[in-house]
Structures are given as C-alpha cells and as structure tokens.
Automatic annotation (TrEMBL), chains A, B:
InterPro entries: DNA_clamp_sf, DNA_polIII_beta, DNA_polIII_beta_C, DNA_polIII_beta_cen, DNA_polIII_beta_N. GO terms for molecular function: 3'-5' exonuclease activity; DNA binding; DNA-directed DNA polymerase activity. One of its GO terms (biological process) is DNA strand elongation involved in DNA replication. Residues 1-126 form the DNA polymerase III beta sliding clamp N-terminal domain. It comes from Enterococcus sulfureus ATCC 49903. Keywords: Cytoplasm, DNA replication, DNA-binding, DNA-directed DNA polymerase, Nucleotidyltransferase, Transferase. The keyword RNA-binding does not apply. It is found in: Cytoplasm. Confers DNA tethering and processivity to DNA polymerases and other proteins. Acts as a clamp, forming a ring around DNA (a reaction catalyzed by the clamp-loading complex) which diffuses in an ATP-independent manner freely and bidirectionally along dsDNA. Initially characterized for its ability to contact the catalytic subunit of DNA polymerase III (Pol III), a complex, multichain enzyme responsible for most of the replicative synthesis in bacteria; Pol III exhibits 3'-5' exonuclease proofreading activity. It holds the Pfam family DNA_pol3_beta_3. Belongs to the beta sliding clamp family. This is Beta sliding clamp. Residues 252-373 form the DNA polymerase III beta sliding clamp C-terminal domain. NCBIfam families: dnan (TIGR00663).
Length: 376, 376
C-alpha cells in the first residue's frame, strides 16, 4: 500500500472512525485503525465490542487529492497514528507499507517508521443484505436520539434498560427509553410502508452515532440484521450491536387522566429548577418540592446543613386540584433540556403517581414521564 | 450586614478570591469566603495554607451600584455561595445577615437562606509595614513568572526547589528556578535603588498570582515580611507564604565557554520536538537524540515497540564541533514555550554537560539550561 493525500482531509475521516476505537480493549488489534486501499479509494475502519465505524474516502474526492501508487491494507495503532498525522509539518503526506507490516509516513523533512499489524487479522464486519432498509433524515434521527437517550438506565442490573427501544410498525417509528424512574418517548410518522421491526439499541451506541452523524443534511439508511443494526450514509457505515431480551411494555405506564395541569415556559422553569437543585444536591435525598394552588406556584429546595431556597414560579396557565409533590430535580432538568425553548404542559394525578410532560403544542408525539418521590 | 449590588460585578470579585479557597482544607472556616462590609465598601477574603487573596469593591465603583443598608461581616461556604450567585435570576441581588449567622440572598422571586459562619473566627491576614515596597509593572512580573515557574521541581523531596528564587540587589531583580534537571533564569533591571531581598516563593503561589493579576495595565507593589510576601494592586492583595531554607547557588551551574553553537527559530524547532517526542513518550527513557554536523542537523526519536522518527532540522546558523547529544524532549518543549516566537542560540560543551538556550537577540537577561541524558 502506498499513497499520498491531503492531511487534514484524511484526519477528518480518521477522527470519525476513532469514535469506535478504545485503547482499553482486550483485543490488541482493535486498538488499531484498519486502512484498506483499492483503486476506488481508501476505507478506514474502527471497532470495539459495541460499535464499528467504516468511512470511505473516494479517489474522486477533490479535497483528498489522493495519489495511489500501490493498493493494499494495514492496521495502525489508532491513537498514536493520529497524533503523528496531526503533527506532520506539511499539508500532504505519504504512507508506504514496507516490509514486516512497517509503515513509512513522510511529510516534508519528517520521516516516521511505525510498526503496524497485518490487516488480514482484523475482524470482519457483518455483511448486510441491502433489502429492508429504512431511510430517515439525519436531522430527524438525531432529534429522536437526543429526545430519548438521556433516559436510559446507567446501571447494568437490568441491561435491557440501558438501550433505547425502537419499534417500527403501522407507518410510524417509536423510540422509548426508561430507567424506571423516568421515561421519554418520541413517535415519528413515516411516509411509506416498511417492514416492521422491534429492537433495542444500546444508549451509548446512539450517543456515538449522533456525534458521528453531525449536522449533515442527508438521510441515513437503517438496516436491521440478526443482532446488529447498520446506519449508513453515502460515506460512512455505523454498526451497533443490539441488546438481547424483551423490553418492558412501557405503553401501559403512561397515564391518560389527570387532576392538575400547569403550563410553563421551559426556560423559566429550568432556571428555577437549577436554583432549587443547588440546595437539594447538598441534602441526602436530592428532592425539590412543588406546591401548586390556584393563587400561587412555589418551588422549594432544602438542605438542613446548608440552607433553603423558595421561589414563586411564573407559569402560563394552571387548572385542577391543588397539589404538593416532590421529585428529583435532575430528572426534571434532563427532561426540560430535551424539550428545548418551548412551552410545556405538566399533568399530575396525585403526589404519588408519575406525572407527564408534553410540549403544549404537541400532539402526543413526544411525552415524558417522571416518578415523584414520596416524602411521608 | 445588608447590601444590594450588581451581581456580575460582585461575581468577578468572588472569582478572584476563590482562587485561594480550597474545598479540601482541614480548617472548615477556610472553605468559606469572608465578606466584610463597611461604609467605604465590601472586602472579600479567601485563604488557604499557602496563599490569601483579598479584594475590595468600593462603594464608589459605578458598576457595582452598591446600596449599603447595614455594615457587618459574615463567612459563607465559597463554592456553594458562588453557585447561588451565578444562578440568581436578576441583575441585582440583596444579601442580608439575619440571626444565627444565616444569610438571606434574594433576587427577583428567588429567595435563598443559607447558613454562614461567624466572621470573627476567620483567621487574620498578616499586617504589612508599608515601607520597603518595590513597584513592578504587572506585565513584567507576569513575564518573570512565566519564564521561570515551569522549571520548579514538582517533588517535595527537596522542598526549596518547588519555589522560584527571587533576589533583589544591585538595582536588578533576578528570578531563577530549577528542578536539578533544567534551570531557567531571568534578570530584570530596576530603575531605582531598593532595599535588597533574597526570598523563595512557592511556584504554585506564583502561578495563581499570575492568573489573578490578569492582563492589567497597572503596577504591583511587592512587600516582604518575615515569612510572607504581599503583591498589591489598587483593588487586590495577594499574600503568599515563603519557603524556608537556603536556595542552592545556581550561578556556578551556568557555563560560559562552549564548543558547539546553533541557532534555531523556536517555532520550527518546537514542531520537530513535538514530533520526535511522540516516539520518545512511547519508549522507556523518553529521550530524543540531536545530531549536529557541519552539513546537517538531524533529530531522532525512537521506541523499539512502536517505531522511529527522524527529521532533518532547519536552522539559522551552526558553528563549532560536531556533536551527538540526547535529552528529555519535555524539558526542551517547556523551555521553547517560555521563549515564544523568536530565535534562540543553543550552546553545547559536550554530550554529557548541560547546554544553554538564550534568545539570539538577548543580552544574558534570560537563559535556560538543560542537562542531557547519557546514553552509554
């Protein structure tokens, strides 16, 4: 393998696949990035136990200005390799695989010789049948992820809850995540008919996917395999393993009758929750209390050691029974973040039943649920 | 104590004194900031075992827009207090000390009540005689610090070497730091005659001092006490303890005859050292090798496990004997950083004797020394 190409263009591709590469893996070759060059271009691959990312830099890519002298493949220790590329002196550089899997990397007067590994020993990525693909705009997919993934469980005690449940049926894609204290669910209508699926994707994979997709104005093709899912754009393939097991039936958790309803501006409630949680974080229970009456809505935070805060909240509309309810402000903060700068309706049954949050202008497409904390 | 003032102006002062406040101290009251209000303004104090910072917000400060209702003093847990101030809803806020050292902090509809401590129990700062003061422009002091402090020892095995040695005599201020592997020394001429001094200031104190002085276009008054030094600007007092003991005689370490001399542009040498150190960091010894002949200057880095690098260096001038010398590239990197974007002369005696680095246009006012590593 021997080629010369534009350094920063290559660096961008390398950084994409590096998202999948961990230096902590127990499989040495997976600390490496696989470079595979044929006459149509250069493929970069990074992988760990959960995800694999493959990007392709075409010989026709004008920014890359690739000069291919000899095709071939090699695996190079990713972190170290990227440090070298980053620090090379010139805009272009040459990689040349010499004997014993050694690679010469030259740029200007600097010449590195680094030890690589045989690309034949790199694990193969799953082969995908290109039927049964679903195309979703990247922006929509990112929104779906950002609105749900924060609610997955961080604990391995129930592994299935560390993933986002995605269900495609009846011309809609539903994503739901819960850690059993709070839940977030988004439904996206799809234009056309698709084969249905029901999968659970690890939350960590989706966070990496969202980062690696970026802000692109393209669509991503989703393919489901036996135990993998592939997200594919014209230049990048992102594979994730799926979680095994049955996801709990979350639909029955969402209540549909209420006794108290209040509308807030997200930004103003967010600021008040931040203030109240300053105190609750110092206490043992980390709870804040919301008191709703017809005349006044007040938020309380308290820590016996440090002090207390109370704040009369601004709201847009209130109706129903008076209520005092306590909850973990961190769940509320995350929920509000996911809504962005809008108005929400918060609906309560009682102080001990989960309450829901929805955009005021919503149509049930995005709903969140928070379980309160009993204080007596 | 009761006053109302501009939140972000107060926050700036609070952040200054917070540099001196550690949450890890074993003396509980030192986790707090002392606020002391009289009719001329508000004094904020933060302190730890090494440094103390006191700032003053005058009632005449137009940005602060202070309304003083009652003078007094209180100590508040600094980290927590600043989190509250940061998150208050309005541009102004009111602090009111009520009973039992509790403080009401109100802004808009938010009202905090936090537990404080009696200001009478806060330790007193040293009293300074205002004779024997030396005025230095902040910019010059910052330069002096940045050119030397990186070379102090990080190890407590020889505590005196963790400080910067500052000597004022014969109308010049000399600062020198060494960790016994490298040394950095700067001399600043002073206009007028001053009482001489010879002190060692902890490197950590100087780093904090430099950060807290910022980019101000003012002078700082330096006063020496028994075991403290005070750096004072119109609004801020910065105290540091001094290190006890005798600083080694570093003057005899600096050689004055040489056999090889080479001139480099700092930026281009820096980039090459960065590249070579990529390899040396992977090896056990962390050394790079410089080879100087009349025709070529080459830098080598090598790690048996990972690979090697060699780079023909650009230089401005070379003279004297050919030489091969090995050294720790990290010392070189730090030394080059301190020079900034200029040209330097590097002068060698032999492969086993310390070599010096000086700005080519320098006049001995700034010199650095690096001890090579013997490789056989």
């Amino acid at each position: 393998m021997k080629l010369t190409l534009h350094r920063s263009t290559f660096m961008q591709e390398l950084q994409k696949v590096q998202r999948a590469i961990s230096s902590k893996t127990t499989i040495p070759i997976l600390t490496g990035v696989k470079l595979s060059l044929n006459h149509s271009g250069l493929t970069l691959t990074g992988s760990n136990a959960d995800i694999s990312i493959e990007t392709f830099l075409s010989v026709e890519n004008e920014k890359a200005q690739m000069t291919i002298e000899q095709t071939g493949a090699i695996v190079l220790q990713a972190r170290f390799f990227s440090e070298i590329i980053k620090r090379l002196p010139e805009d272009f550089f040459t990689m040349n695989v010499i004997e014993n899997n050694q690679v010469e990397i030259t740029s200007g007067k600097a010449s590195f010789t680094v030890n690589g590994l045989d690309a034949d020993n790199y694990p193969h990525l799953p082969v995908v049948e290109t039927t049964n693909q679903l195309a979703v705009p990247i922006q929509i997919l990112n929104q779906l992820i950002n609105e749900t993934v924060f609610a997955v469980s961080q604990h391995e005690s129930r592994p299935i809850l560390t993933g986002v449940h995605m269900v495609l049926k009846e011309q809609q894609l539903l994503a739901v995540a819960t850690d059993s204290h709070r839940l977030s669910q988004r439904v996206i209508p799809l234009g056309a008919e698709h084969d249905q699926f029901d999968i659970v994707i690890p939350g960590k994979s989706l966070i990496e996917l969202s980062r690696s997709l970026g802000e692109l104005d393209e669509s991503v093709e989703i393919s489901i395999m036996e135990n993998q899912v592939l997200f594919e754009t014209p230049t990048t393939k992102f594979y994730s393993r799926l979680l095994e097991g049955t996801y709990p039936d979350t639909n029955r958790l969402i209540p549909n009758s209420f006794n108290t309803e209040i509308e807030f501006s997200v930004r103003s409630l967010q600021a008040a929750i931040e203030r109240a949680s300053l105190l609750s974080h110092e206490g043992r229970n980390n709870i804040v209390k919301l008191s709703i009456t017809a005349s006044e809505v007040v938020l309380y935070g308290n820590s016996p050691e440090v002090g207390r805060v109370e704040e009369v909240l601004s709201y847009e509309k209130v109706s129903g029974d008076p209520l005092e309810i306590s909850f973990n402000p961190d769940y509320m903060k995350k929920a509000l973040q996911a809504f962005g700068d809008t108005s929400i309706s918060v609906r309560f049954i009682s102080a001990i039943r989960p309450f829901t949050l929805e955009p005021t202008e919503g149509n049930g497409a995005f709903i969140q649920l928070i379980t309160p904390v009993r204080t007596n």
